[in-house]
Amino acid sequence: MVYTLLLLSLMFMLSFGLLAQHENKQQLANLEIEHLNHEMLQQLAYRSLLDRWTDIDNQTTVSFSFPNGEAVILINKQNTTRVELIVTTTSSSNTSKNRKYLLQEN
């Protein structure tokens, strides 16, 4: 009888541990997908800005809207040759991420 209870308790602990491990892996996968989504938005916004760079002139903020989220780029000209870009992305799940780029103009 004692061995049966011990075996049952070990089986319950093992099954709860496996369930918790599965939930953690699922949450980690969702966070990785969200991270990749932000990376994609950052690159799309950066590329879109560079494609329109000659049309921007003296703007300090540029916004882009993509199917999977939005991006806002703050442009700060530090001097005649250096430009700082702060790209803020907001995904469809309402999370946001910032990244700073430093550009050298020719």
Summarize the structure in short.
The chain has 106 residues and is an alpha+beta fold. 51% of the residues lie in helices and 32% in strands.
Strand order, sheet with most strands: 1-2-3-4
> Strand count, sense and closure of the main sheet?
4 strands, antiparallel
* Helical content (DSSP H or I, runs of 4+): 40-55%
Count all strands and give the number.
4
Q: State mean pLDDT (0 to 100 scale).
A: 91
Oligomer: single chain
* Overall spatial form: rod-shaped
Q: How many domains is the backbone divided into?
A: 1
Report Rg.
24 Å
Taking pLDDT < 50 over at least 5 consecutive residues as the criterion, the unreliable ranges are: none
Query: Approximately what portion of the residues adopt beta-strand conformation?
Result: 25-35%
Rounded to the nearest angstrom, the distance between the terminal CA atoms is 83 Å
Along the chain, the helix and strand elements come as: HHEEEE
Describe this structure in words.
- With 106 residues, the chain is an alpha+beta fold.
- It has one domain.
- Helices cover 51% and strands 32% of the residues.
- It is built from two helices and four strands; from the N terminus they run ααββββ.
- It has helices at residues 2-51, 53-56; strands at 61-66, 69-77, 82-91, 96-104.
- It has a four-stranded antiparallel β-sheet, covered by helices on one side.
- A hairpin with a 2-residue loop joins strand 1 and strand 2.
- The longest helix is centred in the N-terminal third of the chain and has 50 residues, at 2-51.
- The protein is rod-shaped and about 85 Å long.
- The mean pLDDT is 91.
